[in-house]
C-alpha cells in the first residue's frame, strides 16, 4: 500500500510527466483516478463532479469530469488542450501535463511532453498497440523523454488476462526499442475500477511490478544534466554588470574557463550569485548571475559555455521540425529562429523529407509543412547561433520558428536529425 | 561529438528541492519578460500570491532594483490591514505603485454597483484601462493552475487581444522553456510565473523565505456574520442584512480579495507552520472555501477570464 500524504516536506523532488492516448482509451479517467485515489481531489471538487455526473444521468461519479475543464470540452465530451494537474505523495511532487489524443495530437503532445521526464501512453487492452500508440511513442522518442510508461488500460474488459498483457507489452517493447527509448515499463490496469493505479489489483496476481503511482514515485529522476558541459544563455544584464540566466546544462564554478558564444571570446568566471547570495558552484537548473573577466561586452542572446566542450557556431542548421501552426511553411519562407535567448532572422532554405510517425519512414518531400507534420529542414540564418545536437543537450538543441509578421509560433525545432 | 560523464563531486551537494526548481523556473520566466518586453507591470494586491511574486521578482534582479512598477486594482472594499501592508512593502523596497480605483468608475457612472455588492467582477474594466493608459505590454499575475479548471489550461505566457480578452481555443503552443511573448499591437501578454505552484508550495516558500504577510492570513478575533455558509466581515458594501447576525469568531483568511465576497474561515492557525498544517488537512479548495463569486457557476472563472479578468 502506497503511503500518501499531502503534508509534503519542503525538500522533496519534482517529477514532470505527460499523458497521451487515443480517444476513449480512458486517459481522463486514469488521471481522475490518480488524483482521486491519491487524495488530491478535495471535497468541493468531488461534489461538483458528482452533481455534474448526476445531471448527465450517470450512475456513478465520472472521474473524467475532474480534468475536462473548459465549457466546450464538457459540451463535446472531449479534451481540447493541454491541462496541468498537481499532486503529491510523501516524497515527490508531480506536475502532470494531460494532453488530448484526438485531432492535433502531435502538436499537443509535443507541447506537453517537451518539459516532461516521463511520458505515459495509454492503450485499450482490447485493441493493443495501434497507429496512434506508434505516433505517441515516436513523439516521446523524438523529444527524448527519458522514461516512457505504457498504461494498458481496461484490463477488466479482457478478463484481466496475463497473456493479452504480455502480447501488448512485447509489441510495445519492440517498438520502443527500435526508437531508442531509454527506459520503458508496461503496467496492466483498470482506471475505471482503480486496479493498479494507486493500489495493487486483486484481479491480476500474476503482475508483480509496481502500480502506476508506485512507478511514478520510484522512477530515477537523475537525468544527470550536471554531467553535461556548462551552458548558460544570458537573459538579462543586471545594473552591476552581472549576467543573469538559468543554467540549462552542466555546472559552473568560480575560476572556470568559459567561452562567450557566438563570438567565441574566452573569459573566466569571477563571481556567481544565486538570487542575491554569492556561491562557488552552480548546477544545471539554477537561476543565477555571473561576472566574467575578459569577455568584453556581453548581453542577452549570448551564451556562456564550458571552454573545453563547446557547441557548434553556425549560420546553417539542420533541424527536425514539428509544425504546430495552422498556416503552412514552405521553402523560402522568412522566419525568426528563437534559440534560448537568442533570436535571429532566417530563411527555410530547404525542406528535405517528411517523417511518418506511424511507420517511422522518412520520405523525400519538399512540399510546404502543414500542422502536425514532422520534417527535416535546413535553415539559413542571417546571424550565427551556437547550438548543440538535441540528442546531446535538450536545452541548447531546441528552437522555435516564429512568423515575423505577427509573432505566431510556427514550429518546434530539434537540432540534428530525428532519432539519431 | 559525444560528452562523457564527468559529474564532479560537488553535484550531489547541489541537489535542488522542488521549491528550488519552482523558484528557478519562476525567476527564469520573470527575467524573460524583462529581457523581451518593453513595459512590464506586476499586479500586487497584497495577497499571499502577489507577495510571493514580488519576492521572486525582486530576487530575480538582485542586487539591482525591481525594473518595473507594481499595479493594484483597488476595489474600494479593502481590508485595512492589507492596504497598510501594501504601503509598507512599497516604501520598504522603493517600488513604483500604480493604483486603479474601481470607486472612480462607480462615482462617475462608468460602472454600476452590483446588487450583491461584490466588486470582484468590476475589476476587469479598471484593470484593462490601466494597462492601456500606461501602455503595459506584459502583466505579471499570481494565478496558479491548481486554483481552478480554466486556469489549469492557461499558458505561462497568455496572450490578450486589444480588448484584453483571452481565447482558450487559440492559445499559442508553449514548448520547453522557450517563451514567445510577441503580441498584436494594442494587445498584451499576461504572465503567470506561479503557474506550476500549488497553494501548499506557496506557503512552504513563504515559510522558507520568511516573507511577511498581512495579519489577516493568521488567526484573529473578528466580528463576522454568516452568508451562504461563509463568514463575511461587515462593511459599507452591504452586510449584514437584517436577518444576518454579527458575532465574534476566531478566524483567518485563506485568500485576500474584495471584502464583500471573501470569506473567513474559523481557524486557530496563528503561525505559518500552523497554517500549513491546516491546509494539508483541509478537504476543500482555496476558492471553494473563500470565494463566493466562484461558486456562482461551473464556468464562472472561464467566463471572467475570457473577458479579461486576472
UniProtKB/TrEMBL annotation, chain A:
<dbReference type="InterPro" id="IPR041757">
    <property type="entry name" value="CysN_GTP-bd"/>
</dbReference>
<dbReference type="InterPro" id="IPR009000">
    <property type="entry name" value="Transl_B-barrel_sf"/>
</dbReference>
<dbReference type="InterPro" id="IPR031157">
    <property type="entry name" value="G_TR_CS"/>
</dbReference>
<dbReference type="GO" id="GO:0003924">
    <property type="term" value="F:GTPase activity"/>
</dbReference>
<dbReference type="InterPro" id="IPR000795">
    <property type="entry name" value="T_Tr_GTP-bd_dom"/>
</dbReference>
<dbReference type="GO" id="GO:0005525">
    <property type="term" value="F:GTP binding"/>
</dbReference>
<keyword id="KW-0067">ATP-binding</keyword>
<dbReference type="GO" id="GO:0004781">
    <property type="term" value="F:sulfate adenylyltransferase (ATP) activity"/>
</dbReference>
<dbReference type="InterPro" id="IPR011779">
    <property type="entry name" value="SO4_adenylTrfase_lsu"/>
</dbReference>
<dbReference type="Pfam" id="PF22594">
    <property type="entry name" value="GTP-eEF1A_C"/>
</dbReference>
<protein>
    <recommendedName>
        <fullName>sulfate adenylyltransferase</fullName>
        <ecNumber>2.7.7.4</ecNumber>
    </recommendedName>
</protein>
<dbReference type="Pfam" id="PF00009">
    <property type="entry name" value="GTP_EFTU"/>
</dbReference>
<dbReference type="InterPro" id="IPR009001">
    <property type="entry name" value="Transl_elong_EF1A/Init_IF2_C"/>
</dbReference>
<keyword id="KW-0808">Transferase</keyword>
<dbReference type="InterPro" id="IPR044139">
    <property type="entry name" value="CysN_NoDQ_III"/>
</dbReference>
<dbReference type="InterPro" id="IPR027417">
    <property type="entry name" value="P-loop_NTPase"/>
</dbReference>
<dbReference type="GO" id="GO:0006790">
    <property type="term" value="P:sulfur compound metabolic process"/>
</dbReference>
<dbReference type="GO" id="GO:0005524">
    <property type="term" value="F:ATP binding"/>
</dbReference>
<feature type="domain" description="Tr-type G">
    <location>
        <begin position="12"/>
        <end position="236"/>
    </location>
</feature>
<dbReference type="InterPro" id="IPR050100">
    <property type="entry name" value="TRAFAC_GTPase_members"/>
</dbReference>
<keyword id="KW-0342">GTP-binding</keyword>
<dbReference type="InterPro" id="IPR054696">
    <property type="entry name" value="GTP-eEF1A_C"/>
</dbReference>
TrEMBL record, chain B:
<dbReference type="GO" id="GO:0004781">
    <property type="term" value="F:sulfate adenylyltransferase (ATP) activity"/>
</dbReference>
<comment type="similarity">
    <text>Belongs to the PAPS reductase family. CysD subfamily.</text>
</comment>
<dbReference type="InterPro" id="IPR014729">
    <property type="entry name" value="Rossmann-like_a/b/a_fold"/>
</dbReference>
<dbReference type="InterPro" id="IPR050128">
    <property type="entry name" value="Sulfate_adenylyltrnsfr_sub2"/>
</dbReference>
<feature type="region of interest" description="Disordered">
    <location>
        <begin position="287"/>
        <end position="310"/>
    </location>
</feature>
<dbReference type="Pfam" id="PF01507">
    <property type="entry name" value="PAPS_reduct"/>
</dbReference>
<dbReference type="InterPro" id="IPR011784">
    <property type="entry name" value="SO4_adenylTrfase_ssu"/>
</dbReference>
<protein>
    <recommendedName>
        <fullName>Sulfate adenylyltransferase subunit 2</fullName>
        <ecNumber>2.7.7.4</ecNumber>
    </recommendedName>
</protein>
<keyword id="KW-0067">ATP-binding</keyword>
<dbReference type="GO" id="GO:0005524">
    <property type="term" value="F:ATP binding"/>
</dbReference>
<feature type="domain" description="Phosphoadenosine phosphosulphate reductase">
    <location>
        <begin position="40"/>
        <end position="263"/>
    </location>
</feature>
<keyword id="KW-0547">Nucleotide-binding</keyword>
<dbReference type="GO" id="GO:0000103">
    <property type="term" value="P:sulfate assimilation"/>
</dbReference>
<keyword id="KW-0808">Transferase</keyword>
<dbReference type="InterPro" id="IPR002500">
    <property type="entry name" value="PAPS_reduct_dom"/>
</dbReference>
<keyword id="KW-0548">Nucleotidyltransferase</keyword>
